[in-house]
Specification:
5 helices, 115 residues, mainly alpha, elongated
């Protein structure tokens, strides 16, 4: 599990730069925000207006693993039983839930490559 890998990283490993981010912690935080957005957008799919997007707080690099775990859990809970073709909110407008979930999976796949 990606969250567990982050929870077990040393400070030096978390601070290490990646090709796209200044640190692995920053890459993990970005992925946590994407998971949070996906879950929030699916949970608020019935809203007529675009929701007010919450921001995942920037905490200690050691918190990133927990942030990934929590936002991933919230995404799974929000998506449970929602058809893939049901429209969900994204920061770029509405998209099918299946597409939102595929984007989240891709973000986690890319994050795993930073290990």
């Amino acid at each position: 599990m990606v969250a567990d890998r982050f929870r077990s990283m040393s400070e030096g490993k978390l601070a290490g730069a990646t090709a796209r981010y200044g640190s692995r912690a920053a890459a993990g935080h970005r992925a946590a925000q994407l998971l949070a957005d996906a879950g929030f957008g699916i949970a608020h799919r019935d809203s007529q207006a675009e929701p007010d997007w919450p921001e995942v707080p920037r905490l200690s690099p050691f918190a990133v693993g927990d942030q990934l775990g929590v936002t991933g859990h919230e995404l799974l809970a929000a998506a449970d039983g929602v058809p893939d073709d049901a429209p969900a909110w994204t920061r770029d407008g509405r998209r099918p839930t299946g597409q939102v979930l595929a984007t989240a999976v891709e973000a986690l796949r890319e994050l795993r490559l930073t290990f």
